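Troubleshooting log. The previous structure file for this entry was overwritten by mistake, so regenerating from the original sequence record. Sequence copied from the archived sheet and checked twice against the printout by T.R.
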Amino acid sequence: MSTLDHQPLSPLDGRYRKAVGALGEYLSEAGLNRARVHIEVEWLIFLTDEGLFGTHPMNDAQKAGLRRLVTDFDQSSIDELAELEAVRKHDVKSVEVFIRRHLPALGLADHAELVHIACTSEDVNNLSYATIVRDAMREVWLPRARALVERLGDMATEYAEVPLLSHTHGQPATPSTMGKELAVFVHRLSRQLAHIERQDYLGKFNGATGTYAAHVVADPTADWPDVSRRFVEGLGLTWNPLTTQIESHDWQAELYHTVELFNSILHNLATDMWTYISMGYFHQIPVAGEVGSSTMPHKINPIRFENAEANLELSNALLGSLASTLVTSRMQRDLTDSTTQRNIGVALGHSLLAIDNLVRGLGTVELARDTLAADLDHNWEVLAEAIQTVIRAEVAAGRSHIDDPYTLLKGLTRGHRVTQADLEEFVSGLDIGDEAKQRLFALRPETYIGLAGRLATER
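Regenerated output below.
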């Protein structure tokens, strides 16, 4: 029997690799190890530039050679680290040995004991995760998310004035426009993107229990909190001055909760689009060669929106788990975060896949304007709100003596289909001013949209 044990276990690494593979540059095991090499190299260069532990600065060629361990990190580097870890059973220690091996060729053999000096593994790991999550968000996730919101914004502008019969509680309600309804999502999503763009990525560098104990013993003359701050900030991160052995991961929880909310809003968009399609408000554009059903040839299924729903739910399940697990560590340190953080890429991968499906789904639908118009024309009773509100305004202005206009309109329209003629006859008999009557005679379901068109574009 053939074996399939080398096939991708996760669909993100198999079926959906093309859509999410860019995250692997940062959030894969290889991306994490490259980041660890980066942190170790920058610490070695920083401490020698600072003259810590009695050292002297390296020359430019030596610094460049060390940094090439990061920029030239390739499959041979990955394989070498894998061999080291297979023996040592410790990922960060393997990175230390990896760097030590390359020092002699750079004329830095005497610097071997400076690699990883005064560091605990978490000093390297927390800074590595902060950099790869930051870069994955900024270089991959955020550009894709912005592109989706921009696409929605374009649709909101295009459909700003296209009337839509609203449905509250699934029932016909005061009309809006399709553009205004899409603009609501643009506004909601943009707020969350703004939060994500302002996100702090924290890092700590303070030793085995956050006290600088080894640092002070090895070099009592240095101002170690200041050294730590300058090193962390030099990596483009925000310094966390007070931690246990681990960086507390609160920033990660903040980020994942915000992405989770962004995902939830997208889930709402996906279900609304699915519903609009099922109501005939949007047509799906046939794609040559595609099959909607294995037995019903006519079908075009809204698979992009359904796929997005499922992936958003998977992403949020993982993001919620990450956020709740990472903020708790037993006393000064446990290893629950080690396994948990290795799934950051999976959580963001499902979100990215959903974003990809939504962009593709929105690109294969067109608004069914005739269906929207027919639906509005079939529901003249939605003007009951307008009529009873105008009557109230007339009563308030002393131009009418009608008692309880709400109940009056309720009796006429609740649970009934009414026609244009029915409403015109009703308005004709109302005790209101002529100008108000003319406004109501001119009103149509498709024009009863208030400021929806303006709201769709002024966001």
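The two ends are 61 Å apart (CA to CA). Archived copy saved in two places this time.
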